[in-house]
Design brief:
This protein is of the alpha/beta class. 26% of the residues lie in helices and 15% in strands. The chain has 19 helices and 18 strands. Strands 1, 2, 3, 4, 5, 6, 7, 8, 9 and 10 form a 10-stranded antiparallel β-sheet that branches. Strand 6 (219-222) and strand 7 (228-237) form a beta hairpin. The protein is globular and about 95 Å long. The structure holds CIS-heme D hydroxychlorin gamma-spirolactone 17R, 18S. Residues 68-71, 74, 107, 109, 126, 128, 141-143, 148, 153, 156, 216, 298, 332-333, 349, 352-353, 356-357, 360 line the site of CIS-heme D hydroxychlorin gamma-spirolactone 17R, 18S.
Length: 686
């Protein structure tokens, strides 16, 4: 850890025998009184000469920096990447040598909201990983969805302006359910595939630990012999993929603004380290040419059924940041940071990103020296002749600040020299491929197919997932006020699936508009199970949270057994009671709960159990908070386990028996699942 950062905690200790270090100003001057500013007399004016006050307020006034223009709201963690497979046939990068461990910092984010917005809006999630490799930093700056809204970086400012809060009224915060986003989206059919993902439960992750990550673009890899391959990167969560449902996500915003941040922090703090596998889809020019889509188009993915994902390593997050600002806020990712063996493709979206990130860091962090911040600095030797600039933190020695030089011949230190053998050489140099042509503002022909993969995605979803997608379109478009927008979007959807378009139109009460002409007729692609959340969920309690509602006279043995059983499966049991500090159990012992009923709504749990005596159940059935607690758990398709005595509360909450409603014996097994079959009985979906 960097020593300067310890300043203030490792200084001189107090002379009067206390263990505290001495509080000082930034100039190291001991502070005698941190409670009172300097005044001219007891009731007199504050004096300008009070340098302790001035310095403290001055620094405070400048604590904030510009937030990220996108992905402003984020949560980070340190960890390690371990290469688990010999990948040298494809890539020469040292971090992929089997058994190599590389420290990483990961930042997850939402896209549209500001830094202080909530964790659970319907939004894409960023999944950015900085690998501090022995050959320099590699940043894999991805999202939790494998495709993107647009094909060319020149449209990015338009997309983001349209998606963020509207320019004049400054709302809505952190959400796309408004006119400008859907105006843009409906005018840009290339957004259609990504819209399908965005309207699915992928944008409502249950936990940052339960979502996939994707590099999206095709990158290029080079092995030691100079052989090139294309690659797509995938992160696969060991806990499986799981999402919440819309009503739950909405209520989570009220229950806990920091739901994902807290979940990540607490999991790491308790030693339940989140893990992902890094997988790759490796392919060559010949494969690329044979596909009905262009692999340089970021609105397209490669189905895993056509090209299996090869697992080459494991990511584990095992340390929370010491300081949010110094690390999570100041971390600066740049897709242009690649190590020898990794290179870019000509994806026009990627190419634009290569400029944007470096540029934005200067405006966000205020200096071209942002790479010197501890969270951004490489962990391998770094030497060059770049000098000076605001906030220069290093003190370069000697006369050499240019190259070539012959200073070493005069006995001085001439500094570092280039190294072709170890340096990064662009992929097309390695292959001798020529990449030139007339200057044109065009896209390649296959980019014009905006619907084949959107349709493939739709057909890959199970009926519950399809209902969620159709309903989200209907919800978002119901928030749009300008009459031309919704019909235009539905007209585009007719190219994806007539049934989907009809369902959205019906839900909005709109006549089905004429089908929009497709700029290129879609082709049929086989559905892909890998694209469905439901087909890839893992029945696990590990990583999940179970809420246990108790009250006076709850059976002490049953409570202990249930807490143990949940823990034995790797789950986290949390006890909730009407009064947090004092619940008298059946054996007379007093139980402190982890949360009070009013402040701990059931949406923060994956499953709930009601351990209630007959009398408590009767009482709670008359309490709105308790009834709502159970009603929401049922409505959010969660397992509910209950003592027979709890029946009055179940009845009051309208809980009807199904596979997810069990006695205590069946509960732990039931708690590993969600009950999507229950949903059509509860709410009208499109
Ligand atoms: Fe970004 N993006 N982006 N983006 N992006 C930023 O960089 C940009 C795109 C992604 O946790 C910014 O440091 C352009 C795709 C993540 O710090 C900015 C284009 C993908 C993060 C920027 C894209 C991403 C960012 C804002 C279109 C998925 C958060 C602050 C060509 C592969 C990283 C910053 C973090 C952040 C530009 C499109 C992912 C402005 C121009 C596609 C995860 O530079």
């Amino acid at each position: 850890m960097n020593e300067e950062r310890q300043a203030g905690s490792g200084g001189e200790t107090h002379q009067q025998g206390s263990d505290y270090p001495v509080l000082t100003t930034n100039q190291g001057i001991a502070i005698a009184d941190n409670q009172n500013s300097l005044k001219g007399g007891e009731r007199g004016p504050t004096l300008l000469e009070d340098f302790v006050l001035r310095e403290k307020i001055f620094h405070f006034d400048h604590e904030r920096i510009p937030e990220r223009i996108v992905h402003a709201r984020g949560s980070g963690a340190h960890g390690v990447f371990t290469a688990t497979d010999d990948f040298s046939d494809v890539c020469k990068a040292a971090l992929f040598k089997s058994g190599t461990e590389t420290p990483v910092f990961v930042r997850f984010s939402t896209v549209a909201g500001g830094a202080g917005s909530v964790d659970t809006p319907r939004d894409v999630r960023g999944f950015a990983v900085k690998f501090y490799t022995s050959e320099g930093n590699w940043d894999l700056v991805g999202n939790n969805i494998p495709v993107f809204f647009i094909q060319d970086a020149i449209k990015f400012p338009d997309l983001i302006h349209a998606a963020k809060m509207e320019a004049d009224r400054a709302y809505p915060q952190a959400g796309t359910a408004h006119d400008t986003f859907w105006d843009f989206a409906s005018l840009m059919p290339e957004t259609t595939h990504m819209l399908m993902w965005a309207m699915s439960d992928r944008t409502l992750p249950r936990s940052l630990r339960m979502m996939e990550g994707f590099g999206i673009h095709s990158f290029r890899l080079i092995n030691a012999e100079g052989k090139e391959s294309f690659v797509k990167f995938h992160w696969k969560p060991k806990l499986g993929i799981q999402s919440t449902i819309w009503d739950e996500a909405l209520k989570l915003q009220a229950a806990d603004n920091d739901y994902h941040r807290r979940d990540l922090y607490e999991a790491i703090a308790s030693g339940d380290y989140p893990e992902w596998e890094l997988g790759v889809q490796v392919f060559d020019e010949e494969f690329a040419r044979a596909q009905p889509y262009d692999v340089l188009d970021s609105t397209k993915l490669i189905p895993e059924e056509d090209l299996p994902v090869r697992v080459i390593g494991t990511l584990q997050l095992n340390r929370n940041p010491d300081n949010f600002f110094a690390e999570t806020e100041q971390v600066a990712f740049c897709p242009g940071n690649v190590v020898p063996g990794v290179d870019f493709s000509n994806d026009p979206l990627l190419q634009g990103r290569l400029f944007s990130y470096l540029d934005t860091q200067k405006s966000r962090l205020g200096t071209a020296n942002f790479h010197q911040l501890p969270i951004n600095a490489p962990r391998c030797p770094m030497m060059n002749f770049q000098r000076d600039g605001q906030m220069q933190m290093t003190v370069p020695q000697g006369r050499a600040n240019y190259e070539p030089n012959s200073l070493s011949q005069g006995g001085e230190d001439g500094g570092p020299r280039e190294c072709p053998a170890r340096g990064h050489s662009p992929a097309n140099l390695a292959s001798g491929e020529r990449e030139s042509g007339p200057k044109l503002r065009v896209r390649s022909e296959l980019f014009a197919d905006h619907y084949s993969q959107a349709r493939m995605f739709w057909l890959s979803q199970d009926p519950h997932e399809q209902a969620h997608i159709a309903s989200s379109f209907a919800f978002e478009l119901s928030k749009v006020e300008m009459p031309q927008i919704a019909p235009r979007l539905v007209a585009n959807l007719r190219n994806v699936d007539e049934g989907l378009a009809q369902r959205v139109a019906n839900a909005l009460g709109l006549p089905l508009p004429e089908k929009a002409p497709a700029s290129r007729e879609p082709v049929d692609m086989e559905p892909s199970d890998a694209l469905s959340i439901h087909k890839n969920m893992k029945p696990l309690l590990k990583g999940r949270q179970v809420g246990i509602l108790i009250a006076d006279e709850t059976d002490a043995n049953q409570l202990q057994q249930l807490v143990d059983a949940v823990g034995a499966e790797g789950g986290k049991a949390m006890i909730v009671a009407p009064r947090i500090h004092a619940t008298k159990l059946s054996d007379g012992t007093m139980q402190k709960a982890d949360g009070g009923l009013l402040g701990t709504p059931s949406q923060i749990f994956d499953a709930v159990a009601l351990l209630l005596s007959a009398e408590s159940a009767q009482l709670l059935a008359r309490q709105g908070a308790a009834v709502q607690w159970v009603m929401d758990a049922f409505g959010h398709l969660k397992a509910i386990g209950a003592t027979p005595e709890a029946q009055p509360l179940l009845d009051k909450a309208g809980v009807e028996k199904d596979a997810g409603v069990t006695d205590l014996d069946g509960f732990v097994e039931a708690a590993k699942h969600r009950y999507y079959d229950r949903e059509p009985t509860l709410r009208m979906l499109a």
